[in-house]
Amino acid sequence: MKDILQELEDRRAEARMGGGQARVDAQHAKGKLTARERVELLLDEGSFEEFDMFVAHRCTDFGMEKERPYSDGVVTGWGTINGRLVYVFSQDFTVLGGSVSETHAKKICKIMDMAVQNGAPVIGINDSGGARIQEGVDSLAGYGEVFQRNITASGVVPQISVIMGPCAGGAVYSPAMTDFIFMVKDSSYMFVTGPDVVKTVTNEQVTAEELGGATTHTRKSSVADGAFENDVEALAEVRRLVDFLPSSNREKPPVRPFFDDPGRIEDSLDTLIPDNPNMPYDMKELILKVADEGDFYEIQEEFAKNMITGFIRIEGQTVGVVANQPMVLAGCLDIDSSRKAARFVRFCDCFEIPLLTLVDVPGFLPGVTQEYNGVIKHGAKLLFAYGEATVPKVTVITRKAYGGAYVVMSSKHLRGDFNYAWPTSEIAVMGAKGATEIIHRADRGNAEALAAHAKDYEDRFASPFVAAERGFVDEVIMPQSTRKRVARAFASLRGKKAQMPWKKHDNIPL
Ligand code: HXC
């Protein structure tokens, strides 16, 4: 009996060695942790339960039958993050370069199926040379099975991808279909075709880092939602994110104990808006002052900075925040900011996360580039996303809310539940100067008359009261009381039930 038990231990030890000490050392030398070390850091201590440790591939081509390492290049299983169930897979670059074989893919599919069935997030740690070259189409089939599961699980359980090494070729499309992608600076990259192919086909010379590193994907392409300095920081931040999220679409987000008075008054907000309406101010200050304990988890911080998206808690409950940032491009809507916010709004709506929208928007960014690149369709994404969202929606207009952008930003007309405005709000079709130049064309050249008309326009429209008279703004509130009003609004909406008519699915302008 002792021998039998010992054999199990020996086999386990062999599996845990991955591709052997030399390859583990090489992994460490690159500043990367091993697949199992990553899982240990991601999950609560001692909570990891492994599946399929002894799975080995069945390939017999190219002499592969001689090398059949346990686990087949991916560690899979489940555990907890702050006590809540999650499923995880972590590719092991030390075993055949973490390449994806038929059996490797089957292991991933198994835990994805369990995650959907049991209603818990899937976290995928990617570090792989891609399709296992020796297996050919079996490997591609394996990827295809994973892709299908990403799609089936979308909107059912949160899916998070952490890129911690190479992720190239069609392999990038599994992370691309998950809800969030995080990368590690200088040690991870994602691209459909690598620098060599790019050079051959387009004659562009580019390094792997430039083509698909963390900076590229967080600042330029917006493929990634965040980038971290190293593996340890990335995994700690994933734990922090999971704390904000519900386990599945069958559950509400977790409510954390809170020690911050929801009725807290912030006098400093009364002077947040500068006297000069063209001066910027930092919208993040308002977000932090509304949030429990000033805790804000920002998504896509480095991309389209004219729009801020992320999670806070109010009375311990997760709230998704979408806010215009007057410090960047005056907080206007454009292609990038609309896409960024639309995807975030849709994530929140899938998972019953209430939405807080903070508005200071001068309108859509004009320009040939914007029009040629389809600002109409991309702007419509955000409009559509807000209009279809049935979660509790609370909106606060702090200053400008002009034109189409006013309607888009979770207005009353898109079924906003509580639409508040600060007394400093200006809600109108456009700014006074532009408006008077159009409606008083006859006075063009007469500066004095135009100034008088602009003043008249401002007096009549540059305030929240015209909208408030019509009930488009539910209440004009003191800036200092924003947290209190917003907290009470969300508390009153906890039982909200709203539905769209039955349809197979909508046809959001993609
Ligand atoms: C089998 C692979 C492999 C692969 C790496 N290895 N990629 N084995 N299939 N795809 C093995 C190597 O042979 C090596 O084995 C070990 O993993 C480590 O690889 P190195 O090359 O030594 O590591 P490094 O120098 O860090 O380079 C990493 C790399 C490179 C850039 C990822 O290995 C590479 O270019 N690999 C091939 C990438 C590729 O073309 N993949 C197919 C893409 S197509 P030993 O025994 O020496 O340690 C694809 C399609 C997906 O993925 C489609 C989905 C629909």
UniProtKB/TrEMBL annotation:
Superkingdom per UniProt: Bacteria
Keyword Magnesium belongs to the record: no
Alphabetical keyword list: Ligase, Transferase
CoA carboxyltransferase N-terminal domain boundaries: 1-257
GO molecular function terms attached to this record: acetyl-CoA carboxylase activity; propionyl-CoA carboxylase activity; transferase activity
InterPro entries (alphabetical): AccD/PCCB, AcCoA_carboxyl_beta, ClpP/crotonase-like_dom_sf, COA_CT_C, COA_CT_N
A GO biological process held by the record: carbon fixation
Gene Ontology terms: cellular component: acetyl-CoA carboxylase complex
CoA carboxyltransferase C-terminal domain residues: 264-504
Family annotation (PANTHER family): PROPIONYL-COA CARBOXYLASE BETA CHAIN (PTHR43842), PROPIONYL-COA CARBOXYLASE BETA CHAIN, MITOCHONDRIAL (PTHR43842:SF2)
Family: Belongs to the AccD/PCCB family.
Protein name (Swiss-Prot/TrEMBL): Propionyl-CoA carboxylase beta chain
